[in-house]
Amino acid sequence: MKRRMVFWSWWLGWLVGLVVMSCNAPAPVSVAAIRPASASNQQDATLTILGEGFDSSAKAWLIGKDGQKIALVALRILTPQKAEVLLAKGGQAGIYDLLWEQGGIEKRLGGAFEILAGALTIDVVDVGQGDALLIRVSSGKSVLIDAGREEDVDALISFLRAEGVTRFDYVIATHYDTDHVGGFAKLVYGPDGRPNTEDDRRATEGWWDRGGFSKSTSYASVRDLFPSIRKILDGSDASSFPSIDLGAGVKLQVVTANGAVLQKDGSIQRINCLDDENCRSIGTMISLGKFRFWTAGDLTGGGIETPDVESTLARIIDPVDVYRAHHHGSRTSSTQTLLDALKPQAIVISAGRQNSYCHPSDEVLKRLIPIPAIALFVTTSGMIDAEKCGFATNELVFGMGDRALLNAGNIRIQAGEDRYTIRSAAGEVRSYTTR
Ligand SMILES: [Zn+2]
Questions:
Q1: Disulfide engineering: 358 pairs with which of 210, 337, 389, 395, CB 3.0-4.6 Å?
Q2: What confidence score (pLDDT) does residue 7 get?
C-alpha cells in the first residue's frame, strides 16, 4: 500500500515538474503577420511584425520573387509577440516573403508584404453588390469613399485590418443608398460595436456627405458623430467642391455634389434630381501628375429616365486614365456622351456576383467593348447565368480576350506620375502608360 503511494507521489511530482518546465521554456518562434501589408517605396516605412517567441537576437528580411533580399533594419522587440522594423525607401516594387531568423531557426511567411511603386494606391475593395474605395498616398494620407452594404462590410474591415489601416484622413459618403453607406456604422464603431470609444475607425480631417435627409438611419447616426469635421457638400456654393492636396503630388477635387456640377469657370450648374438619390452622388477626381482617376458613386446619365448629370459633367471633364463605372455599370449611367469625354484607358466596375440588378448591364458593356484597347476589370464574375437578365457577363466580354478581367476581387490601382498598374486579388497585373 505504502509503496504504491510512493510510486504515485513520485509520478505526480514528475508530471508537475514537466508542466512547470514547459511553462518556463521559451515559446517556439513563429511569425504570423506583417502590418501594414504594403507600403510605398517613396518613403521609409515603419512596420510591425506579429508572432510568438521573439527575442533580441532576431533578424528580418524581405525576400522577393527573384531572390532579391531587403534587410529590415532598426529591429526593436516590443514584446515576445510584437516587433517593429524599418523598411528604407527605394525598394523594388513587388510582392515579398518575410524572412525571420532567430537562434539559427528561419521562419518564412510567403507573400506577406508588397512594396508599392509610385505615390498613389487606390483599392477598389470587393464588397459584393456595393462600393468601397480606399485611396492611400505615400505622404501617409488616406481617403475612404463609401463602405458597402452592412452585410458585406466585413470584407472591407478585414481588408483594412490586413493593410493596417485603422483611421482615415477623409471619409466621403457619395450618397445615401445602403450599398454605399450601410457599412459605415459597423466600420466606424470598431470591434466593440460602440461609437465614441478607443477602437473607432474615425476620420481625422474631414467627413463629407451631401447633407439633407439620410434614408439610411444607421448612416444618419454615424454622420452625427463628427460634428467638428463634417462638411456638407450640398452643391449650393463653391465650398461644396473642395480641392485638397493629399501630399506627394496627389490632388483630390470634388466635381459633382447633390446634383450640381462645378464648371471650369468656378460657377455651378444644377440638375433637378427630383427624388433620385443616385443623381446626388459626390464625384471626385484623383490625380497625380498626368494620371487621373474618376469615381462618382451611382451618378446618373439619363438612362431608365433618371436625371442626366453625366451630360453636364461631360462638357467640363477632361479625359481620365481610369474610370470607376458609375452605378455598378447600370444602364442608368455611363452614357456614350460621358465615355466620349472621359476617354478612359481602363474601366473598373464594382458589382455583385449574379446580382438582382443585372449589373454590369449589357447596354453599358456593349458601349465599352468597341473602345479601342480599353481594359475592363470587374470585382466579381457579374451575371453568370444568362436566364435571369438575358445575358452572361463572361459571354458578352469574351471577344475582349485578356483585356477583360472578371472575378478580379479587390482591385489595386497603383500610380506614379507617368505609369500605373492595375492588379487583381489573384495577382494578375496590367501596366499602362499615363496619357
Ligand atoms: Zn450603388
A1: 389
A2: 58
Number of CB atoms found within 10 A of residue 384's CB: 15
How far is the centre of ligand 1, averaged over its atoms, from the C-alpha of 51 (Å)? 39
Question: Does residue 127 fall inside a structural domain?
Answer: yes
SS (H, E, C) 39-103: EECCCCEEEEEEEECCCCCCEEEEEECCCCEEEEEEEEEEECCEEEEEECCCCCCEEEEEEEEEC
* Cα-to-centroid distance, 184 and ligand 1 (Å): 14
Q: How far is the CA of 298 from the centre of ligand 1 (A)?
A: 5
| pLDDT at residue number 66 | 86
Ligand 1 centroid to 354 CA: how many Å? 15
Distance 330 CA to ligand 1 centre (A): 9
pLDDT, averaged in runs of 10, over the chain (435 residues): 59 55 68 90 91 95 92 96 95 92 94 88 97 95 98 97 94 98 97 94 97 96 95 97 96 98 97 97 97 98 98 98 98 98 98 96 96 96 93 96 97 91 93 92
Domain that holds residue 144: 120-433
Centre of ligand 1 from the C-alpha of residue 324, in Å: 12
- Residue 43: give its domain's CATH number: 2.60.40.10
Domain boundary among 60, 85, 116: 116
Query: Would you tell me how many other CB atoms lie within 10 Å of the CB of residue 37?
Result: 18
Identify the domain boundary among 69, 91, 116. Answer: 116
CA–CA distance, 171 with 183 (Å, rounded to integer): 13
Residues 374 and 280 grouped into a single domain: yes
Helices (H), 129-269: 153-163, 178-181, 184-189, 217-223
Taking the centre of ligand 1 as the mean of its atom positions, its distance from the CA of residue 424, in whole angstroms, is 21
Task: Output the CA 299–ligand 1 centroid distance in Å.
Answer: 9
Per-residue b or e along 102-132, where b marks 16 or more CB atoms closer than 10 Å to that residue's CB: beeeebebeebbbbbbbbbbbbbbbbbbbbb
DSSP string, 141-167: -EEEEEE--GGGHHHHHHHHHHHT---
Number of structural domains the chain divides into: 2
Q: Report CA(306)–ligand 1 centroid distance (Å).
A: 14
CA of 105 to the centre of ligand 1 (A): 50
Longest dimension (CA), the chain: 103
Query: CB atoms < 10 A from the CB of 392, how many?
Result: 19
Q: What's the pLDDT score for residue 94?
A: 87
